[in-house]
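Throughout our pipeline, every protein is held as a single compact record rather than as scattered files. Such a record has a labelled line for the sequence and another for the backbone structure tokens. The remainder of this section carries one protein's record, kept here as part of the documentation:
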Amino acid sequence: MLGAFVRAFRTPDLRNKLLFTLFILTIYRLGSVIPAPGINPDAIRQCLQGAQTEDTTGLYSLVNLFSGGALLQLAIFALGIMPYITASIILNLLTVVIPRLEALKKEGQAGQAKITQYTRYLTVALALLQSTSIIAMARTGQLFQGACPPSSYMPSEDLLTLITIVFVMTAGTCVIMWFGELITERGVGNGMSLLIFTTVVAVFPSSMARIWSEQSPWIFAIICVAGLVLIAGVVFMEQAQRRIPVQYAKRMVGRRMYGGSSTYIPLKVNQAGVIPVIFASSLLYLPQLAIGLLGQDSDNPVVDFLSTYFGPTGTHPVYMASFFALIVGFAFFYVAITFNPAEVADNMKKYGGFIPGIRPGRPTAEYLDFVLTRLTTPGALYLGLIALLPMLALGASGASGNFPFGGTSILIMVGVGLDTVKQIESHLQQRNYEGFLR
């Protein structure tokens, strides 16, 4: 693998792509530590040291994860890539509901460009909304759960200063979106995925160092071994797929014979990827947001109920059961809206393709739906168990809040890492080089 990596840098065009990607990722990480105007970075560090980790990061764990820790530093890239992810998810869901978007999706590259434009507009709107909410929470001291007064890290509460911070964070999201598109066009791999991968990996060394300082060497060794086993299991499940054989009949076009080839439809066990985990985390984020807005010290019975069962720590059995059920449900839902067996069967029939032993048309669609349902069931259970495993296995040791091998993190690291390596491998194979994966 190291030899293939050296050959990748010896290839001029691939070397330029890799260096350009690393350059963009470096700028992205630099913007994640630059504070927004009017923010005192020294006071922010004291707030983070004084607050308990699980209380501080629990309320905004998902957003903080996708910002690489920039959210709790109130940096110019504090929102990270989360507004774009949310906008993309919303547009994917609306494509099924709104006929106009569904028609654009079928128009090919021109329609996809229009949907991408709508995604950008929605990203800016969501960035404005989220940045305003974060600044409002920071002004009231609820962002750090009362660990320090807001006047220490936001000395000026002038309206113009607050508006400037909001617009700077929104502009930071637009710049991140532009970075992702640049990497996709001129670099290696999917730009948005690599940005998410970078933010997740960025907090990994600090998490490991925190575990080393807070736990005994034996606990640290057990966590490392458990993490390696978990990574191996995730790699196995992410690579697992069911290949449906497809045979194309021969047909005459003019004087030439076409068809007669055989291929397959790859159906992955985890067809939905990490999207169901993000869906479930976003929904369970709403009760925690309500607790923060209404205040934990209020006598409201609704707040007491939410604090008891859906508190920021996320260790209550009701919370974990709800999280698991939402992941499983969203896995089936997302697969249903992204893979249409009837459409695939119609396309196969149009081009003379058929599954051996299955009649074209409706029987093929029913067969694909049957196979997809049987594959999605273990895939959904796998996603739910991976997301809950850190809570279940390490809750007793007290390291669950700092565990770097969390469900969403490990899925992103493994998934994006495998896709990027495969793209580099394809570049090498075009020049008769052996790839990374042998």
